[in-house]
């Protein structure tokens, strides 16, 4: 995160908001599974193996679909080159629109899987010139890095760069709060807002690429 310029840092924050928003939708719609946070699904898979197979199967399917999304997003990003971010985010927008249509047709689980696929793709969106990618749908690593940088600052061996990690975590949590309120009030509206947000991020990414020349 700290290796990126200001424009890409803010874009990463926006994608984190989207990830939190969509994860809240998926969590409510699936009654307790995640479409962005695969560590949680991995734990659900393990507990399901101990308590009953259904939860384990559902968690395993979602994890598999998410990983497939990461693969697709990475391949699309490699193909797109310098236009990686807008192309990948455009793909995320299309997948979220597909999830919305499935939800309107009352294909609840198909919609949830489309959300998971979209969030896997989203993880390939933000990449630096050296190929490093910001994973925007999981925060354990971000919080660990934040804690390490706070410790360095307390020892006067670092600076305030931990604030960047705090901002990324806060963006995901804030997005999840908004997503939870939206989906509990109106699921179709929540899906539509996710599509709109992804589309705006794709447009913003395209503008950044054009400005960079």
Ends apart, CA distance between termini: 22 Å
**Backbone CA Rg:** 17 Å
Low-confidence stretches: none
* Content of β-strand: under 5%
Determine the mean pLDDT: 87
Helix/strand order: HHHHHHHH
Shape: globular
How many strands?
A: 0
Counting DSSP H or I runs of 4 or more residues, the number of helices is: 8
| Multimeric state | single chain
Going by helix content, strand content and strand pairing, the class is mainly alpha
Task: Draw up the topology in text.
Layout: H1 6-29, H2 38-51, H3 53-80, H4 84-104, H5 108-122, H6 140-154, H7 162-185, H8 187-212
Give the structure's gist in a few sentences.
Helix content is 78%, strand content 0%. It is an all-alpha fold and 213 residues long.
What does this structure look like?
It is a single chain. This protein is mainly alpha-helical. The chain contains eight helices and no strands. The radius of gyration is 17 Å and the shape is globular. The mean pLDDT is 87.
């Amino acid at each position: 995160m700290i290796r990126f310029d200001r424009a890409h840092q803010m874009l990463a924050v926006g994608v984190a908001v989207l990830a939190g928003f969509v994860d809240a939708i998926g969590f409510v719609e699936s009654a307790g599974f995640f479409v962005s946070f695969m560590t949680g699904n991995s734990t659900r898979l393990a507990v399901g193996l101990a308590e009953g197979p259904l939860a384990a199967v559902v968690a395993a399917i979602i994890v598999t679909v998410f990983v497939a999304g990461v693969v697709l997003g990475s391949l699309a990003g490699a193909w797109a080159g310098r236009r990686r971010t807008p192309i990948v985010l455009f793909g995320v927008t299309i997948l979220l629109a597909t999830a919305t249509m499935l939800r309107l047709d009352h294909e609840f689980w198909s919609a949830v899987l489309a959300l998971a696929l979209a969030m896997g793709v989203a993880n390939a969106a933000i990449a630096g010139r050296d190929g490093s990618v910001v994973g925007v749908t999981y925060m354990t690593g971000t919080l660990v890095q934040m804690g390490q940088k706070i410790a360095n600052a307390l020892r006067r061996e670092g600076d305030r760069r931990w604030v960047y990690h705090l901002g990324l975590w806060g963006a995901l949590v804030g997005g999840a709060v908004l997503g939870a309120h939206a989906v509990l009030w109106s699921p179709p509206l929540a899906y539509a807002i996710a599509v709109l947000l992804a589309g705006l991020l794709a447009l913003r990414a395209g503008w950044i690429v054009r400005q960079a020349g």
